[in-house]
Predict the structure.
Amino acid sequence: MAGRFDFSSVANQLDSLTKGQVDMPAPLIQDKRTRSEVREDYDKKLKALDKKAIEALKNKVSEAYSSEDIMLLKDDIEDSLAKFIRYYDAFENLNLDESRKVVLKEKELKLEASYDWRAKARLFFFRILGSALVVITLFGIGYIESEYEWAKLPMSKYLVTNSKLPQ
């Protein structure tokens, strides 16, 4: 049994089958930067993208005739889309913040208006109440003075209340 399953012969046959067909890729140079440095470099790269660069990329993509040409521009397209997504998210957040501020301001104004109307109604009520009390007091004094002798004011003899109209 040990002779039938010799691993060295199987490995040699596999090696001879793949020899010359598959080129081994060159070893990759490892990036020894930290994540924050990679992120900073990526942010700088995105910051360098401006409207002119994106328009130039759009023109290159529209002029590309084959998928290989577009694949060469893949990284630039991804970067442009990432920048667009960031701007879009920032715009939505800004709109959300502004709409929240507007809604809060509307609620604040409605609350202020309700307090304002309460204050106006209270002032109006007390003015009417004060005017009614003055009128009732004057009528009460006039009634008491006309009905009771003790309530005649000492100087009332000089006031003529019954004036006769000339004929």
In short: The helical segments are 7-18, 35-48, 51-63, 67-72, 74-147. The chain has a mean pLDDT of 80.
